[in-house]
Design brief:
Blueprint lengths: L5 H10 L12 H12 L3 E5 L4 E3 L7 E7 L2 E7 L2 E8 L4 E2 L3 H4 L6 E4 L3 E7 H7 L11
Antiparallel strand pairs: 1-8, 2-7, 3-6, 3-8, 4-5, 4-7
Length: about 140
């Protein structure tokens, strides 16, 4: 009997959305194994409504995947806070700032109980020598 792990499938679907993590292989087995291994590196973190997930001064060192819940993205310009977007399940953020090891210019706050999945920058640095189309040497 085949075990169907929906949690793992959802994690893989989210990873496939990160354009620079795409594996360039025509072999379906290679592609499946690549994402299978990568999804095990994701960490889960929970936040309550009102908790800040990312602050505008925080260095981004993860790719963040919204797994459950809703969160609001805000930016501050000239001491004025602007609401930019509402994140929901399957949205991701931080994927490009993480490559630069730079600080966020935005904040993300949970609007409801939120579950985030994170993929560490250090894992990507240790396992990817080149991210095609983004950086030649990572």
């Amino acid at each position: 009997m085949y075990y169907d792990d929906m949690y793992k499938k959802e994690k893989i679907k989210m990873l496939e959305c990160v354009d620079y993590l795409e594996i360039h292989s025509n072999d379906e087995y290679d592609r499946a194994m690549f994402y299978e291994c990568l999804q095990y590196q994701m960490e889960e973190e929970a936040f309550e409504a009102g908790e800040e997930i990312i602050s505008a001064t925080q260095e981004i060192n993860h790719i963040y995947f919204m797994f459950q819940g809703f969160a609001e993205v805000e930016i501050t310009v000239n001491d004025e806070v602007h609401k930019m977007d509402i994140l929901r399940s399957k949205d991701l953020f931080g994927q490009y700032k993480m490559l630069e090891s730079s600080k966020a210019y935005f904040s993300v706050t949970a609007l409801s109980p939120v579950v985030i999945l994170k993929l560490k920058q250090e894992f990507l640095k240790a396992n990817f020598t080149k991210i095609v189309g983004v950086r030649e040497s990572y």
